[in-house]
Design brief:
binds zinc ion, about 100 residues, globular, disordered N terminus
Length: about 100
């Protein structure tokens, strides 16, 4: 009985954790700002450099990211995203 209760108690926690993804040490979550291996083609006016800060706006089988500079949205499979992500710049959940 104790075992059964413990497993049941963990189910909710597991569902929460599965929102985040771990791949090659990179853990990302919804609303995180991430840097990709290839920057976006648009240029940040303030720095004159190509923009490379993307906000994760959808996290499912497909992932949608939005360029923080021009607002351009790119959708790709999670598999593709895992290959293309370089690092997480800002964790959205840090303020929670
Ligand atoms: Zn852009």
């Amino acid at each position: 009985m104790l075992m059964a209760r413990k497993i049941k108690g963990c189910t909710g926690h597991t569902e929460l954790v599965s929102q985040a993804s771990i791949f090659g040490g990179i853990m990302y979550d919804l609303n995180d700002i991430v840097e990709m291996k290839k920057p976006h083609a648009c240029v940040v006016k303030q720095t004159g450099k190509k923009a490379n800060a993307w906000e994760v706006i959808r996290l499912g089988a497909d992932i949608k990211i939005k360029c923080s500079n021009c607002g351009h949205i790119v959708m790709m499979s999670r598999q593709d995203f895992n290959k293309k992500i370089k690092k997480v710049l800002v964790k959205a959940s840090e303020n929670n």
